[in-house]
Amino acid sequence: MSQVPQSFATLEERITADYPSLSRRLQQTAKFLLDHPQEVAFATVAQLAKQAGVTPSTLIRFSNSFGFSGFSEMQLLFRSRLFDELPNYSERIRAVRSATGDELDSAQLLWEFATAHQEVLGQLPGRIDPKHLEQALDIFENARAVHVMGARRSFVVASYMTYALHHIDKPAFLMNGLGAMYGEQVKAASQEDALLVVSFSPYAQESQDVAEQAHQRGIPLVVLTDSPLSPLVRFADVSLLVYEAEVKSFRGLTASLCLTQTLAIALGVRQDKARDHLEATPAPLSN
Q1: Which of 43, 51, 111, 158 has a CA that sits 20 to 30 A from residue 261's CA?
Q2: Domains of the chain by start residue, with CATH
Q3: What is the pLDDT of residues 181-230, one digit of tens each?
């Protein structure tokens, strides 16, 4: 028996290779599945069978023919495709329509998003290593200035962190990449500064390049990312791992914004204590 496909790409290759030998109904199923992967990710067997013009048992038989125990197991690979390849919003919205129907209950969707974000926020403190949090704050406190970089979806978190640092009087610079100048902007940072890079799967190449350059130049680097397997982790002095809510393939930023707000406020408290200590220290007596 052939090995069960472990990725969508492998499954796609198997379906393509086996297509000529499939029965007419299974060929019809194969064509529908590969032509509509975003719908397959979240719709029920009944919904997909209706759209494909086959019976639900045909879908189950199709998944069994490729070694899966059931349709749900095969469907996980279609979901992973959405998360790994990040199709555009149009594709993901079509997937939501396929799963919910045209009569979308907006209030119900709001409840789904709110509940998912509540769950990740509740889990956030337990997932962040307190030692790593303090190490990141040490780096920021000792830095002359903090440079912050986040491309694409991560830009929201990076821009907020820069905003918050300005408000606690910590010199901060947002690497915005205008004119494709990320390489030049990272050159403005020195070993006396610190760099925070925010990057989530599928990890923008620009973020990886900036992190690698900073590492090579000895700039203290804090990485905020979503997995210990993130390609940025190997360059970081400290890695903070954040898990975001996912609802119908749309991922949030609630936990990341909460963490960056915590970092900024905790750093502000440290700076305020340092100023108080400095003011309370008697000036040396002159001769």
Answers
A1: 111
A2: 8-100 (1.10.10.10), 112-280 (3.40.50.10490)
A3: 888 999 999 999 999 999 998 888 999 999 999 999 999 999 999 887 78
